[in-house]
Amino acid sequence: MAVAIALVAGIVASTTFAVRESAQRRKAERARADLEKVVDFQARMISGIDPAGMGERLISDLRGRLEKAGPGGEPAGEPAGTRRPQLDRALAGVNGTDAALRILDEEILGRAARVIETEFAGEPLIEARLRLSLGTTYGDIGLYDRAGPHLDRSLELRRNELGDDDPDTLRSLRAVASNHLRAGRYEEAEAAFRAAVEGMSRVLGPEDAETLTARQSLGNVYRKQGRYDDAEALYLDVLQARRHTLGPEALQTLDTMQSLAMLYGETGRHSQAEPLLAEALEVRKRELSPDNPLTLLTIEQLAENQSNLGRLEEAEKLYLGLLEAQRRVRGSEHPDLIVTLNNLAKVYVDQGRLDDAVPAFTEALRIGRLKRGPDRLDNVMMMVNLASVQQRAGHLAEAERLYLDGLEAMNRTAGPDHPSTLLTRVNLGIVYFQEGRQREAAEAIRAAAENARAPVQVKLQAALFFRRYASPRDTAAAVRYASQAVEMTGRGEFPSLQALASALADDGRTGESRSVWEEIVAHPDAGPLQFNEYAWFLLTSAGGGPPEATTALEFALKAVEPPGDKNPDYLDTLALAYHRTGRDDKAVETIEHALAIIAPNDAARRGPFMKRLEEYRAATARGDL
Q1: pLDDT, tens digit, for every residue of 315-351?
Q2: Residue 371 and residue 331: Cα distance in Å, rounded?
Q3: What is the spatial distance between Cα 440 and Cα 434, in angstroms, rounded to a whole number?
Q4: Among 82, 144, 479, 496, which is least packed, fewest CB within 10 Å?
Q5: d(Cα 189, Cα 179) in Å, to the nearest integer?
Q6: Shortest CA distance to 361 belongs to which of 347, 374, 377?
Q7: Does the model's pTM come out above 0.85?
Q8: Rounded distance, CA 440 to CA 432, Å?
Q9: How far apart are CA 303 and CA 314, in angstroms?
Q10: Taking a C-beta distance cutoff of 8 angstroms, is the pair 383, 427 a contact?
Q11: pLDDT in tens, 589-613
């Protein structure tokens, strides 16, 4: 009996201990759950920060306070608007986004990092989770160097605690890879994404949603590296898998479609991009709403693609609808309107509707100055775009004023040696030329071209000016600038080589020019433009005798292979080649074809073609005699 009693007592004691242990475990689990909620809350608090919007609000608030306060801090009592120019000068060069980023880094995210170091040093997995969130937030606001150490530490902690193949470890590895991609460190990004894809495929499965996200990101790396075939293969595989596992209308599926469309756009395959963007837009409108930010972004991509396809009316319609939606959803002065107005203005320019382009550029510039300050570089570039439109419209005095204002602002912000500053100086020089101010034009363009930081575009513009427009012409300078452009591009770009060939011909160095042209047309990427220019050179600059005319005819025929047969200038070259080789009947036929393409009411364009048609008909008649 004593034994039985002892056993019962032992059972009671063990049961009591188990109950107490279970209660302590539940208490610990509740505490951990509470801590997890705190971590989630902190992660949400520091994610989704918008430094650009914060910076705009800082500048706007500062402007408002300065306008209301006088020199001593009391209300100024001045008429509304009289202090605006003074305020703009005071805030010139102040970048609100940079100010916001400094505050976020030093006062919010930096403090969060110090709390993580002190409060969670003994909780490696909690620390890893917070580091991941903090590093991601740093990356989202563009501070990639700040993001890196937190993401690396998150990966290190998870590897130590969970091992290489734990899904959370692989998520940290993917975040490290994404930060390398954002920072432009493509080799490091490729290696990390490859490891993440391999691990996720093994642990989660090759068609898991997270694995597919990592694979698409690896495709993005390839696209940034210019490895378009590798990127396209990955995008297509991911797209097929997402359609199969998630469905054709899932948001992730649409995201892959738009990445593939971007690749097609970057490689000039705009017709292949169009159906992808159109389908994505249709689904986003239906599943999200017509005014959802992702829907509006898709409209913007489709509008740009239509513009690249030359479908300017459709692009205009899309941009106008986008503007209406942006104004309705975000207000009439939201910064997103700046890009849309700027792109719409470019469509108007391509349509030759300069009177419509001017107010669009002007409104974009007004919003940019209001929201970003007068001296921000992209605002200054919009001013230069507006000057270019005024120049094309023949409003030279207004174009000169805008270029001069733009140069003054660029010298303050970007500096006198910045490539955009030098390009603007060249444009101003061209305005001087159009105004008949030859000496000032040559001085402005020469100064820009002689600058040590002058980009290729400046060298090419200078070569063209001194070869064709300067008075007196300076073909030696044209050859020098074109040669420099060729060196800067490693003899790998047609515009530089063509500029050098033309400059050499005008400088009387025909043999050297012909050698450059032969190098151009022998290139595997040479096309109708290069073939036509070479044929024209042979007919007009290289003597144009029977041997040259025969070779010219060969290349002129290559130039008018479809779609070159729709270009009147290519047909003009072919007609001259026929004429020089004694086939005037074909010359007449070809010029008539060219005239059928040119609009009947375009007298200025048709005039030279009509003159050559008469010449070839006369030659045909003489041949009949």
Answers
A1: 999 999 999 999 998 888 888 899 899 999 999 998 8
A2: 13
A3: 11
A4: 82
A5: 8
A6: 347
A7: no
A8: 6
A9: 7
A10: no
A11: 999 999 999 989 889 899 999 999 9
